[in-house]
Amino acid sequence: MKIGELAERTRVAPRLVRYYEQQGLLSAPRSANGYRDYGDEHVERVRRVAGLVQAGLPTRLVKVLLDMEDAAAQAMPTCPRQVAELLANELGGIEDRIACLTRSRNTIRDVLSRTEHAALLSEAGRPAPAVLT
User: Fold this and answer.
1) Class of the 1-78 domain?
2) Are 121 and 127 in contact (CB under 8 A)?
3) Helices (DSSP H) in the chain: which residue ranges?
4) Where are the domains of the chain?
């Protein structure tokens, strides 16, 4: 598949797919006409990269994680102490962001559940929380 189809299937802009390639996060063979030729495995890879980036990881650490996952699929992975420390620091930041997002979500749910628009919560596929009185 060409980059446009990959971008459409992953909901990632084509220029971002190219950026992932520049960062060494993705590689695809080129066809005879010079176009990149992506396969189904690239769809999952781009989704994985995009998810990690959206979680707040810098691309340099995404590369480390993906390389370690690839190595783990081959044999027992190793991780230098410096890399482990970087990953542990990132994990702490992610957990802080999750806690902040959870508080924000709960606040929004609580506010909506107390209004005449509480039905919007269940329409969105999420049950309205019980209102404590």
Assistant:
1) mainly alpha
2) yes
3) 3-10, 14-22, 40-54, 59-74, 81-113, 119-123
4) 1-78, 79-133
When pLDDT is cut at 50, 70 and 90, the band that residue 121 belongs to is: confident
Query: Whole-angstrom Cα distance, residue 46 to residue 12?
Result: 8
CB 26 within 8 A of CB 43: no
Report residue 53 CA to chain centroid gap: 5
Q: Are 37 and 73 in contact (CB under 8 A)?
A: no
Give the global pTM: 0.67
Categorize the per-residue pLDDT at 132 as very low, low, confident or very high, splitting at 50, 70 and 90: very low
Residue with tokens 């707040």: 56
